[in-house]
Design a protein that fits this description.
It is a single chain. Strands 3, 4, 5, 6, 7, 8, 11 and 12 form an eight-stranded mixed β-sheet that branches. Strands 1-2 form a two-stranded antiparallel ribbon. A two-stranded antiparallel ribbon has the order 9-10. It has helices spanning 6-18, 23-30, 34-47, 55-58, 66-96, 134-148, 210-228, 259-270, 276-282, 302-311, 345-359, 366-379, 389-399, 417-427, 452-464, and strands spanning 184-186, 189-191, 195-201, 235-242, 246-249, 255-256, 287-288, 317-323, 328-329, 412-413, 437-443, 468-471. The longest helix has 31 residues, at 66-96. It folds into two domains: 6-48 and 67-154, no CATH class; 184-471, 3-Layer(aba) Sandwich (Rossmann fold), CATH 3.40.50. 27% of the residues are buried. The two termini are 38 Å apart. By secondary structure, the chain is α/β, with parallel strands linked by helices.
Length: 476
């Protein structure tokens, strides 16, 4: 079903009626079905008269009172008296006018009067209806002839839908079909929709190495290009989130894609591109999550937190851009962000400290490195792993949150991804069949992958929304 405002539907129907555009051509022009056009046309016929209702009528109570019955009686008597008066005038006119009702009154010269909508003219007040002078009678008949003549070249070529004659000239502004385009362009693809929300993960762990920064900056450039290509008729918003429960949005509501709003979005994204420090400083410069309408329940974190923000704007399309999901450093995360995840921050910190005493400032023992490597080999295909077994060990330790094989497990916490997905679904304010179409773009380092619980839940969600899941789209 095409989505047009009531004003646009009216303009499309009136354009067909007043400009004598065939229904088939009008439907093709605006990409609508004939059944949709017929429905709009029927509604215009059925409900169009309501626009002439006076405001005083709307203020009357719906229940019938004695006063309303009296008003109705007076109206009926008034109508009957008017009918009797009209009948008397008509009878008097035919009695005194010898030409009235005579077919001889229309000569061969003016026999085409019946073809024109104005073939009968009112009789001037000074007309002598008993004994009209020949000169005045000839003048009036000349006026009738001139008014009634219709050029055959201007006759309508096809029957209008409501039987109305076509109107020549510009009566209503032309509806620009380009303004009604429902499309969003992103990285060479075209998506159907006019309300879009872009969601960007700006967590610092995504930009701490050179490859991560390049991927992040390429992503911001792609979003900027997409926003600037939006039609002025479209609407959009930009949500930037980081860590577990931090976010900011360009506006409190969905925004029209005006040049001014596009510039705000472009400037915001461009301000993140200088360095890791610029990401940290500028990602929160617009409306913080505390000022936004939606308040996600505890346990909704990371990607699901950003998506909850985006869904609250009720868009047609959501584009989520994220990256590697490593275990989070407790030193960067407020403890209250772990609420609802079944994680006790105090116990987690104590466990991390114990691990730190065992492994801090020294390489992980061989048995841990080898165990981690065998675990990774059992999960990944051989062609997706480095040939060098030492590099496999290194990669496995990174996957497990022991960066570079020498950093301790101290301060790292793994997120229960399935649980936060369940919290997210429980927190939704819309029916599941009303979720916007969601497209997720993930940028991952070589030989790295998401935890299976996160991957499966994200793919399950985008499939349910009829969206897509794309890995390393911007890679050459």
């Amino acid at each position: 079903m095409s989505e047009f405002t009531g004003e646009q539907k009216l303009r499309i129907v009136l354009e067909s009626l007043l400009r004598d555009v065939p229904k088939k051509d009008q439907c093709k022009k605006y990409g609508i079905s004939e059944s949709e056009f017929d429905a709009w046309n029927d509604k215009l016929i059925k409900d169009g008269g309501t626009i002439y209702e006076t405001s005083s009528q709307e203020n009357f109570p719906s229940s019938r009172s004695e006063g309303s019955r009296w008003s109705k009686s007076v109206l009926i008597v008034s109508v009957l008296m008017n009918l009797l008066l009209v009948a008397g005038v008509v009878s008097w006119y035919f009695f005194f006018n010898p030409h009235a009702g005579s077919t001889e009154y229309l000569s061969n010269e003016n026999s085409n009067l019946a073809e024109g909508p104005d073939s009968i003219l009112p009789i001037p007040e000074k007309y002598d209806q008993v004994n009209p002078s020949p000169e005045l009678d000839a003048k009036i008949r000349g006026q009738i002839n001139a008014k009634g003549k219709v050029s055959s070249s201007k006759k309508e070529k096809s029957t209008p839908i409501l039987g109305l004659p076509p109107v020549i000239g510009e009566v209503i502004p032309k509806v620009d079909s380009a303004d009604l385009a429902r499309e969003v362009r992103l990285m060479g693809d075209v998506y159907d929709g006019k309300h879009a929300v872009y969601v960007l993960d700006a967590s610092l762990h995504l930009v701490e190495d050179e490859n991560g920064r390049k991927s992040f900056f390429d992503t911001t450039a792609a979003i900027i290009e997409s926003i600037n290509s939006l039609s002025s008729y479209s609407f959009f918003n930009l949500v930037i989130y980081w860590d577990l429960r931090e976010a900011a949005a360009l506006g409190k509501t969905i925004l029209r894609a005006s040049d001014e709003n596009k510039k705000f979005a472009t400037d915001w994204l461009s301000s993140l591109a200088a360095s890791t420090e610029s990401v940290k400083e500028n990602r929160s410069q617009f409306y913080p999550h505390e000022l936004l309408y939606v308040k996600p329940m505890p346990g909704v974190v990371s990607n699901w937190y950003g998506l909850t923000m985006a869904i609250s704007f009720e868009p047609d399309l959501i584009f989520l851009f994220t990256g590697n999901a490593t275990p989070y450093d407790l030193s960067r995360i407020p403890y209250n962000h772990l609420s609802g995840l079944g994680i006790d921050p105090a116990k987690q910190q104590a466990l991390s400290n114990n691990r730190g005493e065992a492994f801090y400032d020294q390489d992980a023992p061989d048995y841990i490195r080898q165990t981690a490597a065998h675990w990774l080999q059992s999960m990944e295909k051989e062609e997706n792993l480095p040939i060098d077994f030492v590099k496999v060990e290194q990669l496995a330790l990174e996957r497990l949150g022991i960066a570079h094989g020498s950093k301790a497990l101290s301060g790292m916490v793994e997120i229960p991804w399935r649980k936060t997905f369940e919290n997210f679904l429980f927190n939704l304010d819309v029916n599941f069949d009303e979720i916007p179409q969601t497209h997720v773009f993930v940028a991952m380092p070589n030989h790295m992958a998401w935890p299976s619980a996160l991957t499966n839940s994200v793919k399950e969600f985008v499939e349910s929304s009829k969206g897509t899941f794309t890995l390393n789209r911007l890679e050459p």
